Amino acid sequence: MAALEENNALFPIFILTIMALALVPYTILKLCRAASKQTRASIASAVTALIQESTIRPFFKAILNFSTYSSLPLVLLWVVMIVLVYYITTQSVENQVFYPYHILGLKPGAPDSEIKKAYRKLSVLYHPEKNPDPEATKDFVEKIVKTYQALTDPVSRENYEKYGHPDGRQGFEMGIAPLQFLLDTKRNGGILFLGIVGVDILLLGHS
After folding, report:
1. Closest Cα partner for 145 from 120, 114, 112?
2. pLDDT tens column, 31-83
3. Could you tell me which residue ranges the J domain spans (predicted)?
4. What string of DSSP letters covers 114-131?
5. How far apart are the C-alpha atoms of 3 and 177, rounded to whole Å?
6. Low-confidence ranges of the chain (pLDDT < 50)
7. Is 55 exposed, middle or buried (0-12, 13-18, 19+ CB in 10 A)?
8. Mind giving me the DSSP string for 87-122?
9. How far is C-alpha 104 from the geometric centre of its chain's CA atoms?
């Protein structure tokens, strides 16, 4: 189950990569084609006005000229990419790597006596009987207890020191997860993926 959740978390990165491979080159190509002498002159004057004057109307005018009806799909795809980047960055904060020694405030390789001492100290602060705060209980169960078990169990500790995870070597199956996601007819991920790829192909076809 943990591996499946990890793979599903990687799927937005897969979508973002596919979009960027088509969208970034197409955007550069479109900008280069739009940069005629007249357009370059208008953009230069807009930048000059932006620097020398307090008004920013020419700058917004240049943006509006680019965001015409023909450029609307391109703008929408860039909005989707920005949303994906925001989603991925926020998820990466929530899904941080498990560092048991850091959680207990110890240096890597600390002896069992220091691990037990640190665990008792944190138990006084976060144990449900000592601290009724729901967040404290959550931290105690999900972090402190898990950390203590990982470092006091010989097998779990050896796995962590060798592979960086108390459960042993963790597989990386990013290439399989998107395919499983697409083949699952109960989800809308496949339709979303095919739609994004289709729009990318249409954009490149009109370039």
Report:
1. 120
2. 777 666 556 566 666 656 655 554 555 555 555 555 555 577 778 888 888 88
3. 99-164
4. HHHHHHHHHHHHH-TTT-
5. 10
6. 1-7, 54, 93-94, 172-187
7. exposed
8. HHHHHHHHT----HHHHHT--TT--HHHHHHHHHHH
9. 27
**For 129, what's the count of Cα atoms within 13 Å in the CB-facing half-sphere?**
2
10 Å Cβ neighbour count for 34? Answer: 14
Domain boundaries, the chain: 2-96+188-205, 100-163
Q: What is the CATH number of domain 100-163?
A: 1.10.287.110
Nearest C-alpha neighbor of 35 from the set 69, 65, 68, 70: 65
**Number of residues assigned to the chain:** 207
Angle at 184 between CA 182 and CA 188, to 5 degrees: 70
- The sign of the CA dihedral 28, 31, 37, 40 is negative
Q: How far apart are CA 129 and CA 47, in angstroms?
A: 63
What is the C-alpha to C-alpha distance for residues 7 and 4, in angstroms, rounded to an integer?
5
Q: Which has the closest alpha carbon to 146: 125, 160, 134? A: 160
Biggest CA-to-CA distance, the chain:
75
